[in-house]
Amino acid sequence: MTMLSDLPIEVILDNVLPWLAIPDLIHLGQTDHFFARLCNDETFWKRKLEEDFNFTDERTARISGWKHLYRGLLNPKTYVWGETSKGRLGLRKIPSTTLHDVPYPVELQIKSGARIVSLSAAGWAFFALDSAGSVYVWGTLNGTSYALQHDGYSEPAKPAHTPLRLDMPSPTRSISCGRLHATTLDDQHHVWTFLSWGRPFRLDTPALNATTLDSTPVLVESGWNFSSVLTKSGDVYVWWPFAAPLKDVIAAQDVAMDAANQKAHATEDGVIPCSTWELRQEPTMLPPLPQLPELPLGLAEPVKLVKLAALESRLIGLTNHGHVLSIPVESDVAVRSERWEYLPNFSEVDKVQQHPAYVSSQLKPPQSLRISHISAQFQTFVAYSPGSSSVILLGSHETHANSNPLILPALQNNDVISVVLGDYHYGALTSTGKLLTWGEYSRGALGLGDPGQLPPGQPGGYGTEARRSAAVANGGPYPPGISEPAEVSFGHGNAQRDKMFCFAIAAAGWHMGALVIDLEPPTDVQNDNDEDEGPPMPGRFPRSRETGESPQDYPGEPGQWGPPIMARGFRIGFAGRGAIRGGHLGRGRGRGL
């Protein structure tokens, strides 16, 4: 008699376990060591998160803890803090603090009770993606202008003081924010550009019609004023919606839609009915990669781009072998004469080992290196590798082949899986769920606490009691910045704040946000030992086998093919840029947005 354990492991993981209810999975894992190992397989739970919660986590270098996250995503929490202008925090009530900002994380309640799985920040706003593929927005997409009270959300400067849901044709899979716009990718492989929340346009072009590997988008990335997309084959396309000729086409369309009274006013139940339209325009295709050296930990498969990160007017690319490259994307005309430039000091272990940060200090250099993730903001980018010996390398818009990265010792070998950047503040997320911030106070964007309440000398506070007392009495000045990363606590004023696990972060301008799960959820939450399956998993996407549709292939990592269990795996966009140009990594001063 054939036993279940006689089947090939791949068959069990890909074709048996995905169909089991969660309680059945737990029970199966308790039968013996063989099934205990299979039912705790990290890759299986990562895929399960994609399928059931629309959660890909492609923005981070996370390599473990997927089952823990699955349990926590039954009830994730959204926190925001920093500057409050333009409605960017989405809070109904702003807490009373010494300097009249929000200097610590405050939980944001989204009316529908949506399970938020991804967060992205623009210059004056946030975009949030839930487990059902719905997008929620708050703040102001274009904070450089103003809107009238009777304007709808076809007006870019119309603020959303509390979260509103965008009514789009199809579920969204990923979001990437620029300063004044955002780019999204939906489950039909359609690429959308938002210059306002109420009037997004779809790029209608044979180059991105998803009929071949070359034309199937897997990742979108927004720069300061441009959008880009990566296809499954590794090709990159770019377009500039704020510059001619697209700017003129968009302006003409706005006039026509205004005349038709398609203003996208929000409904009473908090929904923006998006007036979508199609823009038929060919994006600019970037040149192919140059000849690249073989790296020690490279793969056997051909080299191609699998990730993008956008600066103000430059793209950073990462290959499946770990090569980091850069290319200017100033304009449609200028980019045609540009070429990708390989950055060996951000890619090769022997080059990194020779960095002064390792040579002149006690910092332990990496014995091996494979850069797996990149992120960027305005004039700064970050390349990093996962694990307890993680390497975090920072570069700028001026980085070239001979440039050395900036290495902050406090971030090395610290399990850092994600780095985000605001104007003058920075954040790093660890695999253990800790958020570390450093930089300028930035109207509370460090999130370290009310400086008027913090003990003198504590990170985020004042240096002396005299200065603290003066600030409390006078409402200022702001406390000094910090150069060493300090940990952010969630659940301000709550004794349970140390029992929180942060799994995603976003930053821009003078604000920051995070997604957090409670390590001690309420007792009424269904646990692994429940006998019945209960109602369908909230936000669960229908499997093609359940709906009778033919299955589609989606990448687990951009550019890679996944087995049938893989849900629509796309990049979660990283935060965009605020209004003040402060992308340097040192101390800086600036005005609030």
From TrEMBL:
One of its GO terms (cellular component) is cytoplasm. The lineage of its organism: Eukaryota, Fungi, Dikarya, Basidiomycota, Agaricomycotina. Residues 521-568 are annotated as: Disordered. InterPro entries: F-box-like_dom_sf, Ran_GTPase-activating, RCC1/BLIP-II, Reg_chr_condens. GO terms for molecular function: guanyl-nucleotide exchange factor activity. This is RCC1 BLIP-II. RCC repeats lie at residues 76-132, 133-188, 381-432, 433-485. SUPFAM superfamilies: F-box domain, RCC1/BLIP-II.
